[in-house]
């Protein structure tokens, strides 16, 4: 796995540099390179925005030119929201992340980000192998520098880990066993028989199957089964008056 360097070319605001560093840290990127920051370096404004990423800022490498910043890299992507009069492949962030992940782990990779106001100039783009564009609304295609870094870092990180796309945290309660579920369901059906809800003998098997399917789809947990059994028990016993509130007259 080869993690890309993030190269900020002539960034203008320290706040954006700090926020970009924080985004990198969120998603496991560590190689920050800064080319000719407008307000110099270090920048206190960057530190204020780099919660949890001060070490990353402190280890940032400084360069005078983009050529120097990419000199040791073998594959470079240039981010831009504008069409360029240059014949280069154009990849989405998702495709770029896939290509980075599939690349030889010994390859040195990097992504160029331009100044906030104008983006990368054509000379910077010419140094890259691939143009990287994030699909956005044509009415407002430009995104903040730190947001751009976060999007690329996120796409890269998603291809490095195996978090399930959907999960239900179990906490202290595990999913109910079939025995626990059947105990609740038999309790429910017994009481529905007793109150006459299932009195239509021809329809009873269908109604019971439908009720079972409905509760089965819920994927009940142990605590939920206990709660439902308590609900059924309470309904059987009938209504009881609420206890008086503190201070109420008796």
What does this entry show, briefly?
The chain has 250 residues and is of the alpha/beta class.
Q: What is the chain-wise order of helices and strands?
A: EHEHHEHEEHEHEHHHH
Number of strands: 7
Please describe the biggest sheet, giving its number of strands, its sense, and whether it closes into a barrel.
7 strands, parallel
- Oligomerization state: single chain
Shape: elongated
Query: Quick one: CATH superfamily of the largest domain?
Result: SPOUT methyltransferase, trefoil knot domain
List the uncertain runs.
none
Indicate the mean pLDDT: 91
Q: What is the count of DSSP helices, taking H or I runs of 4+ residues?
A: 10
Structural domain tally = 2
Please report which band the strand proportion falls in: under 5%, 5-15%, 15-25%, 25-35%, 35-45% or over 45%: 5-15%
- Read across the widest sheet, the strand sequence of neighbours is 3-2-1-6-4-7-5
End-to-end distance: 74 Å
How would you characterize this protein structure?
The chain has helices at residues 14-26, 44-49, 54-58, 66-70, 93-102, 122-126, 145-158, 178-195, 204-217, 222-237, and strands at residues 5-9, 32-35, 61-63, 75-79, 90-92, 109-113, 130-133. The chain has 250 residues and is of the alpha/beta class. It folds into 2 domains: 5-158, Alpha/beta knot (3-Layer(aba) Sandwich), CATH 3.40.1280; 178-237, Orthogonal Bundle (Helicase, Ruva Protein, domain 3). It has a 7-stranded parallel β-sheet. Strand 1 (5-9), helix 1 and strand 2 form a beta-alpha-beta unit. The N and C termini lie far apart (74 Å). The mean pLDDT is 91.
């Amino acid at each position: 796995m080869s993690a890309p360097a993030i190269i900020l070319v002539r960034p203008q605001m320290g706040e954006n540099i700090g926020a970009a560093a924080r985004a990198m840290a969120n998603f496991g990127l560590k190689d920050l390179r800064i080319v000719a920051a407008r307000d110099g370096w270090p920048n206190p404004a960057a530190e204020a925005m780099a919660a949890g990423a001060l070490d990353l800022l402190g280890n940032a490498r400084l360069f005078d030119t983009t050529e120097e910043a990419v000199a040791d890299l073998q594959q470079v992507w240039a981010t831009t929201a504008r069409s360029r009069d240059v014949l280069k492949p154009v990849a989405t962030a998702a495709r770029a992340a896939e290509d980075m992940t599939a690349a030889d782990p010994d390859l040195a990779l990097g992504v160029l980000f331009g100044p906030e106001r104008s983006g990368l100039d054509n000379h910077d783009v010419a140094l890259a192998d691939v143009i990287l564009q994030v699909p956005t609304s044509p009415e407002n295609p430009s995104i903040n520098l730190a947001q751009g870094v976060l999007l690329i870092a996120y796409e890269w990180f998603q291809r490095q880990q195996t978090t399930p796309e959907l999960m239900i945290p179990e906490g202290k309660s595990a999913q109910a066993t079939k025995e626990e579920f059947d105990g609740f369901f038999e309790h429910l059906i017994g009481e529905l028989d007793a109150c006459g809800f299932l009195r239509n003998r021809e329809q009873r098997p269908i109604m019971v199957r439908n009720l079972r399917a409905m509760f089965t789809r819920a994927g009940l947990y142990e605590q939920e089964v206990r709660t439902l059994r308590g609900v059924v028990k309470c309904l059987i016993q009938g209504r009881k008056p609420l206890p008086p509130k503190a201070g109420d007259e008796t």
